[in-house]
TrEMBL record, chain A:
Coiled coil: none annotated. Residues 324-358 are annotated as: Disordered. InterPro entries: DGC-Regulatory_Protein (IPR052163), GGDEF_dom (IPR000160), HNOB_dom_associated_sf (IPR042463), Nucleotide_cyclase (IPR029787), Rev_trsase/Diguanyl_cyclase (IPR043128). SUPFAM superfamilies: Nucleotide cyclase. This is GGDEF domain-containing protein. PANTHER family: DIGUANYLATE CYCLASE DGCT-RELATED, GGDEF DOMAIN-CONTAINING PROTEIN. Gene3D superfamilies: 3.30.70.270, Haem NO binding associated domain. Residues 190-324 form the GGDEF domain. Residues 343-358 have a biased composition (Low complexity).
Length: 358, 195
């Protein structure tokens, strides 16, 4: 039979986290790596169960029970901080001379190498610890690269969606975006006002000064509308020179009228372009969601449209609210010819239509 | 070629020669983009075109540029993660050399679609080794020259390297290990992660 000294010598090389126990459960030899976990407290001579707490199997609390646990997987942790978790296996020595316990870090290896500044030399050559650490780092690096790719793809997706809801010429929301917002508002309970604004004399700017001037005017108009509205209002360009503004919560006719009035006044200010002055105006029709018991998108848009007709009929540069009973059929044929409907004017405004984002 | 390889070239050029030269190269190579994605795979032809334009832009032979790339990968702080992964190969430069046979497997373990050609280390007499770099990645041996040189510095070892032609289809690097502990080297702690 090999003596204990020789046995300890072998174990130090084969499994540097071993413990040799005598029959009373006292540690007679401790592997160098295990001792490295408590450099200030020599474990040799201490009681195994006083240094380590046995977590599983739970029934084991005494040395005889420990000795009888041969073959079972032990879950342990150090009793004092840092309470590193360990896995172990106990094998009794023949002739009741005590036992060998072999310990390993298991999944706590990542914290352990950091907490105890372990190096390759602390693990036996056959231990997969180093490979595990390599793998964790390699996978983390690869995962980080994948995560960055995902973030970039997500950013690209958001940008693409944003573009799809934006009128590229003016940066305002487009028809699609307005439809979305409108249906969301209609699904909720918040009252709102919907304003349909149509530019007057825009076609003549396009015809006399060219499409570049037309584009410039539209961008200027967009800027004015954004300045004259609140952050959570919606400003959308839904046609060549047609715009829809949606005001959350706002139901006061006076306020709405003053907003519309101010918009018209500002749009009537001459817009300089390449030494020329572009002059336009606007007609505005407004409807309140509260004017209908069960408003839907097409009803509201149609009502705003009717109010807009009324404004146009009243001589342009005017603002009108929708009134029940208003209808486009009341428009005299002669008057209609003199005052083209917004749709007709938009269709005529080819320059504007050219730049209309779909 | 794997995005990681393309990305390595991009990182090398941007950090060594500047972003504007990299953009020029991508334009000359008709890439249509300026950023390679590390986790996507690109066709070999694209990567080779970039490499060709890179050498034209720098006016330097490909083997030199690739050797510099290898050195960059180990020594630049931007690629610290890679240096650490290589240092897992062994505690000494000698152990590292012996771990090179496993390098392609280690790479694949980290990123399953990253295929590096086989490496084969032979120990000759008197501290001399030969490393056969098998085919599959054009310029592989040149990059490995740079990696081996920079890793020697990292371990503090003194080596002489020479590209000694081909053995069969493989390109061979002759390594003479003069001193394993010539200089201090850089530290490597198992528990410290690359940021």
């Amino acid at each position: 039979m090999i003596d204990l000294e020789d046995l300890a010598f072998l174990l130090e090389r084969l499994c540097p986290m071993f413990v040799l126990l005598d029959r009373s459960g006292r540690m007679t030899r401790v592997g160098p790596t295990l001792q490295k976990l408590r450099p200030e407290q020599p474990m040799q001579g201490e009681k195994f169960l006083e240094t380590f707490e046995l977590l599983r199997p739970r029934s084991v609390a005494t040395v005889p029970a420990l000795m009888a646990s041969s073959g079972a997987k032990l879950h342990l942790s150090l009793r004092d901080e840092p309470r590193t978790a360990l896995k172990g296996l106990i094998v009794p020595l023949p002739g009741e001379h005590g036992a060998i316990v072999n310990l390993s870090f298991g999944i706590s290896i990542l914290d352990a190498v950091r907490d105890y500044a372990l190096t390759s030399a602390d693990f036996s050559g056959t231990d997969l610890a180093i490979e595990l650490l390599y793998l964790v780092e390699a996978k983390s690096a690869a995962m980080e690269a994948s995560r960055k790719l995902n973030l970039r793809l997500q950013g690209a997706m958001i940008a693409a969606e944003e573009q799809a809801f934006t009128d590229t010429l003016t940066g305002l929301k487009n028809r699609r975006a307005m439809d979305h917002i409108l249906s969301r508002l209609l699904a909720g309970t918040t009252p709102f006002a919907l304003m349909h604004l149509d530019l007057d004399y825009f076609k003549s700017v396009n015809d006399t000064l060219g499409h570049a001037a037309g584009d410039h005017v539209l961008q200027h108009v967009a800027r004015v509308m954004v300045e004259e509205t609140r952050g959570d209002d919606t400003v959308a360009r839904i046609g060549g020179d047609e715009f829809v503004l949606i005001f959350n919560h706002l139901q006061e006719r006076e306020r709405l009228d003053s907003i519309a009035r101010r918009l018209i006044d500002r749009l009537e200010e001459p817009i300089p372009f390449n030494g020329e002055e572009c002059r336009i105006s606007a007609s505005v029709g407004t409807v309140l969601s509260s004017q209908f018991a069960r408003p839907d998108a097409s009803t509201l848009l149609h009502a705003a449209d009717l109010a807009l007709y009324a404004a146009k009929r009243a001589g342009r540069a005017t603002h009108r609210f929708y009134e029940a009973g208003q209808s486009s059929t009341s428009v005299e044929p002669l008057e209609r010819a003199a005052t083209p409907s917004p749709q007709e004017e938009a269709a005529a405004g080819q320059g504007a239509a050219r730049n209309l984002a779909s | 070629m794997h995005g990681l390889i393309n990305r390595a070239i991009q990182s090398f050029v941007c950090n060594t020669y500047g972003q504007s030269r990299w953009i020029r190269i991508t334009e000359a190579a008709h890439l249509g983009f300026i950023e390679f994605e590390a986790m996507l795979v690109y066709d070999d032809e694209t990567s080779l075109r970039v490499l060709q334009e890179l050498c034209l832009e720098l006016g330097r032979p490909q083997r030199e540029v690739l050797e510099d790339l290898g050195t960059y990968l180990v020594s630049n702080p931007n690629t610290e993660a890679l240096r650490r992964l290589l240092r897992f190969g062994g505690v000494t430069y000698l152990e590292f050399l012996h771990s090179l046979d496993d390098l392609p497997d280690r790479a694949r373990l980290a990123v399953s679609d990253l295929h590096l050609p086989a490496l084969e280390l032979r120990e000759e007499s008197g501290g001399r080794f030969s490393l056969a770099c098998h085919t599959g990645l054009p310029g592989y041996a040149n990059v490995m020259m740079g990696v081996l040189r920079a890793m020697a510095d990292d371990y503090g070892a003194l080596v002489m390297l020479e590209h000694s032609g081909t053995r069969g289809k493989a390109e061979v690097i002759e390594i003479t290990l003069i001193e394993t502990a010539f200089a201090e080297g850089r530290s490597f702690e198992l528990g410290a992660r690359a940021g």
